[in-house]
Amino acid sequence: MSRIMNQSAVTMNQIQHKLDVIGNNISNSNTTGYKNRQVEFSSLLSQQIDNLNAPENAEGRLTPDGIRVGAGAGLGAINLNQLQGSMIETDRSLDAALTEENMFFQVNRVENGQQDTVYTRDGSFFLSPVEGGGVALTTSDGHPIIGTEGPIEIQDGFDAIELNDQGQLVVTRDGEQAAEAELAVVEAVRPSALEAEGDNFFTVSGAADIDEIIQSYAGEGAVIHPQSLEQSNVDMSQQMTDMMAAQRLYQFNSRSITMGDQMLGLVNTIRS
Description:
Elements lengths: L2 H25 L9 E7 L2 E4 L17 E4 L2 E8 L6 E3 L6 E3 L4 E9 L2 E7 L5 E4 L5 E4 L7 E2 L2 E2 L1 E2 L5 E4 L4 E6 L2 E7 L3 E3 L5 E3 L5 E3 L9 E3 L7 E3 L1 E3 L5 H36 L1
Antiparallel strand pairs: 1-4, 2-3, 5-22, 6-21, 7-8, 7-17, 9-10, 10-13, 11-12, 14-15, 15-16, 17-20, 18-19
């Protein structure tokens, strides 16, 4: 395969990954607490061809002699945009929105008999019954929410439950209100080290030191806006612009392959 066709084929493969990321952003534009993904490209290895090595060629030149031929572009990184999303009032007592960037709720995810701690910005909570009576505060999929004393469970016999701006679960029993649990909000001091997973969860790689990435929130003041949810921070106009630009770039590289094939065909015709 000619050099131009090889470069275009490699770049097209990487552009397809960018289109996949853009499509994922668009499909999650209405997902609570979703964080936009951004793609960064980097140049692949290049080859220096020194075909102009005569001494007189260097006289008066501002650039090195020869030709530098690249091997296309590669996907450098997929970064999370942790900017705060807009708030929407829901007037639902178990909804909570985090008001600071890089803050997360902790979730005890149980899958295939294994438990691990994951993190989310989605503050849409529910009550699920537990064995022995009582209810647990969970995500919409039934994963328990972690409080300062472990997974949050409330005993039966309550009249109402609501969250306040301190992250406390205020329970009303016989007209008396008391805080019976508190959300364990954490801060990602190195948010770039978080890995995005499905179901709007983030996790820390097993090879990383979790204490260097996730810490308990040590700030002062309220970080929770009760009866509200944080919307996705996806900018639809920007995503559509990026998608059209990526499609044009994909078409350009596809056209390069077609032209390279036509040139090879022309050369073979001349030779014959």
